[in-house]
Specification:
Elements lengths: L12 H8 L3 E8 L3 E8 L2 E7 L15 H4 L14 H10 L2 E3 L9 E3 L6
Antiparallel strand pairs: 1-2, 2-3, 4-5
């Protein structure tokens, strides 16, 4: 897991393809518009990607692979995403837990677990 502050490099598909070779990568992005971006890549291929500026319309090699996690959050085709749906998707599908900085820590952190088989 990588934490990027103040940039969109994690959503750059060239970078995402490179860092996911031989593994999986999940990229979340938030900006002031407000817009949330989500990308999931496996072994160099973007499998699922979408953003919340428009109604949900996932792209990628298998755009609905995360459908069982997306539908309960209202992330369905043609619908507007709720304000916390993208972070909830990362939490539910990948076990990502973002936690506030602890005593003496300057940055928030998180943990990630593999997708269930």
């Amino acid at each position: 897991m990588a934490w990027e502050q103040g940039g969109r490099h994690g959503l750059d598909e060239r970078i995402l393809r490179a860092v996911s070779r031989g593994t999986e990568a999940v990229a979340l992005h938030y900006n002031e518009k407000p817009m949330h971006g989500f990308r999931y890549a496996v072994d160099g291929d973007v499998v699922v990607g979408f953003d919340t500026l428009r109604p949900v319309a996932p792209t990628g090699l298998d755009p609905w692979r995360l459908g069982p996690y997306m539908r309960p959050l209202g992330l369905t085709a043609g619908q507007a995403a709720g304000p916390h749906a993208v972070l909830a998707l990362a939490e539910n599908a990948f076990g990502l837990r973002v936690t506030p900085a602890g005593d003496g820590e300057r940055r928030w952190g998180g943990s990630l677990r593999p997708l269930p088989a």
